[in-house]
């Protein structure tokens, strides 16, 4: 028995998080839904063209909906581990949504509606641990303090240089003061 949101992978017999959705075939050239070979060929073409492991595709509940489209629930299981990573989901979603994937001809044209995928916490690299955040904060604070220190040092050096230039020209100061005329 698998935990909520996980399903038993037909390939590995272990619980995993499949990428799920529905394929809607608009004009299949058949009406018989009990022919296992028809749907087995769809499974094989999905795992082959999507670069999945044989046996990692699970089709269920095929039926003709009110629009007379053949609707098939699809579950695609990761080849290793419990999850797909984000790039794998994007790649598979792109292939199915943009119709790069071509099913067997007798299924006809299709479209794909995906379900949300439950990525694990931190799998996308978007979340940082609190230690990393604290380290970044301390590093930024030290950088700001260093820049302020360099700025103060530069201002003092400029004043010293101006004073030194003034002291190196004593006659200019006396002319300005009116001592030499």
Spell out the blueprint of helices and strands.
Blueprint: E1 7-8, E2 15-16, E3 19-25, H1 36-49, E4 57-64, E5 70-76, H2 86-97, E6 110-114, H3 130-167, H4 170-177
Antiparallel strand pairs: 1-2, 3-5, 3-6, 4-5
What does this structure look like?
The protein is an alpha+beta fold. The protein has helices at residues 36-49, 86-97, 130-167, 170-177, and strands at 7-8, 15-16, 19-25, 57-64, 70-76, 110-114. The protein has 2 domains: 7-114; 130-177. A hairpin with a 5-residue loop joins β4 (57-64) and β5. The longest helix has 38 residues, at 130-167. The N and C termini lie far apart (106 Å).
What structural keywords apply?
single chain; 181 residues; alpha+beta; 2 domains; four-stranded antiparallel sheet; two-stranded antiparallel ribbon; 6 strands
Order of helices and strands: EEEHEEHEHH
Proportion of strand residues: 15-25%
Estimated helix fraction = 25-40%
Strand order of the largest sheet: 4-5-3-6
Q: Give a short account of the largest sheet.
A: 4 strands, antiparallel
Query: Gyration radius, to the nearest Å?
Result: 35 Å
* Shape designation: rod-shaped
By DSSP, the count of extended strands is 6
- How many helices in DSSP terms? 4
Mean pLDDT: 82
Number of domains: 2
Structural class: alpha+beta
Please give the oligomerization state of what you see.
single chain
How far apart are the first and last residues' alpha carbons, in Å? 106 Å
Low-confidence stretches: none
